[in-house]
Amino acid sequence: MAKILVTGGAGFLGSHLCDRLVERGDDVLCVDNYFTGSKNNLVQLLDKPNFELMRHDVTFPLYVEVDRIFNLACPASPVHYQHDPVQTTKTSVHGAINMLGLAKRVKARILQASTSEVYGDPEVHPQPESYWGKVNPIGIRSCYDEGKRCAETLFFDYHRQHKLRIKVARIFNTYGPRMLPNDGRVVSNFIVQALRGEDLTIFGDGKQTRSFCYVDDLIEAMLRMMDSPAEFTGPVNIGNPGEFTMLELAEKVLQLSGSKSKLVFKPLPSDDPRQRQPNIELAKSQLGWEPKVKLEDGLKETIGYFRRLLS
Ligand SMILES: NC(=O)c1ccc[n+]([C@@H]2O[C@H](COP(=O)([O-])OP(=O)(O)OC[C@H]3O[C@@H](n4cnc5c(N)ncnc54)[C@H](O)[C@@H]3O)[C@@H](O)[C@H]2O)c1
Predict the structure, then answer these.
(1) Of the candidates 62, 70, 59, 63, which has an alpha carbon nearest to the alpha carbon of residue 28?
(2) What is the DSSP string of 38-62?
(3) Helix, strand, coil fractions of the chain, as percent rounded to 5
(4) Which of 304, 159, 179 is nearest to 232 (CA)?
């Protein structure tokens, strides 16, 4: 029974990860400061003997004995990470330092939930891991993008300098049940607007593309990454390469939810990338992984979740 620490475990991805780890019999310690996460995401685990929940802010050191650490703590949507940008950078950078320090002390293997945002507004399409990115260091998204880039730097320096066993996963847009209804991410936005009968907001002309990975696929890749041979550090892209325009996504949501809402167009926010699509060849070859859930099936699950939540 491995002792596993999940930071940010009360959030969207973290809670699904805790579900899987508890189910397979690991001893899971989840820490979260509940900034964007909630105990509601974990009620199904609270009475399990192999699950423990602790309120803790990762910008402060943590002293626990664990074998493995999944470091997910960090607000992930622009609405939340821009709410207190200084705290966002602190969470990424101080959080990484604290968790790497812990991993060093207890000789744990540690995985960083990094992001496709490290590629910024990419000039290379789709993005392979070897691409260094085009990131604005002083814009409104920088607290998140640069915070995550610095966290990657710290991971690799701890690896080189202290021989820490690290794993870096660059997560692309992921969606599914337990996303927050008000976090401004496009999938939850469209679904909530459609279910409430409100207009669906499209930023720009709606021709910018995104690829969307369903949460179950993502968690499977994270587990495989953590269990992969020690010499495979990543960074590795995890996401679904299937690419859709915002207009296509909006129309799919309307169709699957049976909503009669209309589309309205608003100006693009600054630094919004035009295109983002993962190259997942490395994940395929090193982890034997590729996403399985079709957008339509994932959207149905997610719409079902929001229907229950809003009713
Ligand atoms: N969902 C995606 O599409 C996506 C894409 C790329 C990367 N990621 C990364 O995956 C991780 C999880 O994202 P998510 O979508 O589940 O977001 P989320 O906001 O639902 O989860 C983040 C969790 O971290 C907690 N948290 C924030 N600051 C903290 C702090 N200082 N101390 C302790 N806990 C703190 C929040 O309360 C929340 O429970 C994040 O690191 C994010 O950057 C997610």
Answers:
(1) 70
(2) -GGGGGGGTT-TTEEEEE--TTS--
(3) 40, 20, 40
(4) 159
49 Cα to the center of ligand 1, angstroms: 25
The number of beta carbons lying within 10 Å of the beta carbon of residue 150 is: 16
Catalytic residue among 144, 158, 175, 214: 144
Question: Separation of 66 CA from ligand 1 center, angstroms?
Answer: 21
Q: Which token pair is 131?
A: 């691409």
**Catalytic annotation present for 144:** yes
What is the rounded distance in angstroms from the CA atom of residue 210 to the CA atom of residue 173? 8
Indicate the pLDDT class of residue 271, thresholds 50, 70 and 90.
Answer: low
**Each residue's pLDDT tens digit, 246-267:** 999 999 999 999 999 999 999 9
Task: Give residues with Cβ within 8 angstroms of 70, minimum separation 6.
Answer: 4, 5, 6, 7, 9, 14, 17, 111, 113, 222, 226
147 lines ligand 1 (CB under 6 A): no
Q: Cα(11) to centroid of ligand 1, in Å?
A: 6
Q: Which of 158, 12, 178 minimizes the C-alpha distance to 99?
A: 158
In this structure, the residue with its CA closest to atom 11 of ligand 1 is 72
Provide mean pLDDT across the span 121-130. Answer: 92
Establish how many alpha carbons lie within 13 A of residue 56's alpha carbon, considering only the half-sphere containing its beta carbon: 21
Q: What CA–CA distance (Å, rounded) separates 102 from 287?
A: 26
- pLDDT tens for residues 62-110? 999 999 999 999 999 999 999 999 999 999 999 999 999 999 999 999 9
- pTM as predicted: 0.96
